[in-house]
UniProtKB/TrEMBL annotation:
GO terms for biological process: NAD+ biosynthetic process via the salvage pathway. It comes from Arachis hypogaea. One of its GO terms (molecular function) is nicotinate phosphoribosyltransferase activity. Its EC number is 6.3.4.21. This is nicotinate phosphoribosyltransferase. It catalyses: 5-phospho-alpha-D-ribose 1-diphosphate + nicotinate + ATP + H2O = nicotinate beta-D-ribonucleotide + ADP + phosphate + diphosphate. The chain crosses the membrane at residues 12-34. Keywords: Ligase, Membrane, Phosphoprotein, Pyridine nucleotide biosynthesis, Transmembrane, Transmembrane helix.
Length: 132
């Protein structure tokens, strides 16, 4: 993983793509900081269009991930995802719900990155955070 990150950072620097560089640095900070979902302290997220709050965004994401894992059309592709990666995605979404982005190739794209991204994105969508 470190080699891929280094290559991406070099490409960003060569193109002077500062936005991408900042994004990669943010994702790396989030992903290296957390190892488990239990380490996420503030799990609440205010719904975008109302004053109510989802008290446990982590559980909402886990529910969506479970739905993806049980989906007949996916035939067990998303069996077990990397929890550290999921923790990073959730933490990033809690910090930046209006601008959620995820680097899905940090561990295993098909078995972890995509299902973790989809679960977080679907949970955000349920709370009214929709990309325009």
């Amino acid at each position: 993983m470190e080699e891929k990150v280094q290559q991406h950072l070099i490409r960003c620097l060569v193109r002077l793509d500062l936005l991408s560089l900042c994004y990669v640095c943010l994702v790396l900070c989030f992903s290296y900081d957390l190892q488990t979902l239990d380490e996420i302290k503030d799990k609440s997220l205010r719904k975008k269009v109302s004053k109510s709050t989802c008290k446990d965004f982590v559980s909402l994401v886990q529910a969506w991930l479970s739905k993806l894992q049980c989906s007949k059309s996916l035939r067990g592709v998303f069996v077990e995802t990397n929890q550290s990666e999921l923790s990073a995605f959730i933490s990033y979404a809690l910090a930046f719900p209006n601008n959620f982005l995820a680097l899905v190739d940090t561990y295993d794209v098909i078995r972890s990155g995509i299902p973790n991204f989809c679960a977080v994105a679907l949970a955000l969508n349920e709370l009214g955070y929709v990309r325009s």
